[in-house]
Amino acid sequence: SFCILFLNTILFCSSVGVFKNGRVEIIANDQGNRITPSYVAFTTEGERLIGDAAKNQLTSNPENTVFDAKRLIGRTWGDSSVQQDIKYFPFKVNASARGRKLIVGSGQMKTFTPEEISAMVLTKMKETAEAYLEEKVTHAVVTVPAYFNDAQRQATKDAGTIAGLIVMRIINEPTAAAIAYGLDKSDGVKNILVFDLGGGTFDVSLLTIGNGVFEVVATNGDTHLGGEDFDQRVMEHFIKLYKKKTGKDVRKDNRAVQKLLREVEKAKRALSAQHQAHIEIESFFKGEDFSETLTRAKFEELNMVREALLYQQILNKARTTMY
């Protein structure tokens, strides 16, 4: 069967859909969820967990839980973006002997490339599709951010191959979004602006659609502007606040940091429906509890929401391209 696998970093999650009856149907996983956390964990018992099970044990096993491979895939060790990201990962990332690939190491002394970690997630999505269809899945279309370069696209395709899939095509996420909304069925030529603020990236793309053909006229984005980055900025605020009040720095305690990050994410979600959210963590650091309040006003002050609205750059770029 022919599947569309959607590999995205919204809350570090992936989705899988199957093309049936002229439309794409997103398939629920074994937990009944239509999105699966892109987490891979290795337990002390030697078991490998993928998806919800891996994410659920993050705070108790942070050094052996790998996530956010999409920010590493297809990049070299010397990439400034990689060097910035690894400062916040609880797991270790090192250069390979040949200097071309990143090696993701768990605390169990196992090493994997980002492609292999991504392949594990894709395998999970493949199994989800096969359980739903009750047949083998061999071919897939995989979506990537529009700003992905050739190396990142090839690395993503390699991950699909490792997962046992024949990757028919790598397509841009804005194009996939336009198809999902049925914009390819529109008559005549249209210009469509796709605004994609995800869990780890931000993209604005201008598409020209005519006769079922999509052309990316202009695209711009930020690989470090999304929900994850909002969480990181709020977390840093509370870490500094905690140090100011207690004189203690929690940054070197991976479990404390991951506990705080988890609660910050929950508080951020709560702010969608209320003006403030309380963050309470028992035995946060060296037996001490954590208790703070995050207001919507403080969240907006700390974060990069305004930056996400600067899509005028893409329109200016598009005018140059089109005229």
Automatic annotation (TrEMBL):
Pfam families per UniProt:
HSP70
GO terms for MF:
ATP binding; ATP-dependent protein folding chaperone; hydrolase activity
EC annotation from Swiss-Prot or TrEMBL = 3.6.4.10
Give the residues annotated as coiled coil: 250-277
Q: Which reaction does it catalyse?
A: ATP + H2O = ADP + phosphate + H(+)
How is this protein annotated for GO cellular component?
endoplasmic reticulum lumen
Q: Which subcellular locations apply to this protein?
A: Endoplasmic reticulum lumen
UniProtKB keywords:
ATP-binding, Chaperone, Coiled coil, Endoplasmic reticulum, Hydrolase, Nucleotide-binding, Signal
Check the UniProt entry and state the signal peptide residues, or none.
1-15
Q: Which PANTHER family match?
A: HEAT SHOCK PROTEIN 70KDA
Protein family membership:
Belongs to the heat shock protein 70 family.
Q: What is this protein called?
A: Endoplasmic reticulum chaperone BIP
